[in-house]
Amino acid sequence: MKALDLFEKSVDAGMYYQQFTRPGKAKLLDKEIDVWQELLIPGKDTEATYYEHKYWGEYAGITRHKYGKGSAIYIGCWCHKDILKSEVRTAAELADVKLEDFSFPVIIRSLKTRDGKNLHFVFNYQEDETTFSCPWDAVKNLVTGMHYVKGDSISLLDWGTAILIED
Fold it and tell me: pLDDT tens digits for 12-28?
């Protein structure tokens, strides 16, 4: 593929860039960025989040563009983890992928039993006790025998585990 063809395809996807640099004092959404940044130039009909910097402020750090039957999100820098989490959540929503509202140190892993029931393993990877709100309609803790419904608080000891089966 020729360079011009690649350029035209990148513009079709909502942006292009020709330069990258070290961020210096650049910020994105009021948060410092680190290591590297691409100086993105948004195309037509492209949503963009611009850098905060006296020289690089005319360039975007993130672009979002509808493309074909889907969309493209391009993150052009080493951004703060909160920004990255937000963009991943946005991408999942655009793709109709449901993400759990849980994140480290509370981790949930689920499976279906042979008889078709949903079984959930909830891990508390920290030295502090924690609670979380039950996201399922009705579950039973297979270790304690306790029953919970959506919205109930479930406690986990430090480094604790709960094994929950949906009723």
Answer: 667 888 899 999 999 99
Rounded Cα distance between 14 and 114, Å, is 46
CB distance 77 to 38 below 8 Å: yes
Distance CA 161, CA 156 (A): 7
What does the block give as tokens for 4?
A: 């011009």
Whole-model pTM? 0.64
Tokens of 162: 């709960």
Amino acid at 161: T
What's the token pair of residue 27? Answer: 């910020």
Q: Are 153 and 131 in contact (CB under 8 A)?
A: yes
Contact by Cβ (8 Å): 163, 121: yes
What whole-number distance in Å separates Cα of residue 154 and Cα of residue 161? 11
Question: 117-132 pLDDT, tens per residue?
Answer: 999 999 999 999 999 9
Phi first, then psi: give them for residue 97, nearest 5 degrees. -105, 125
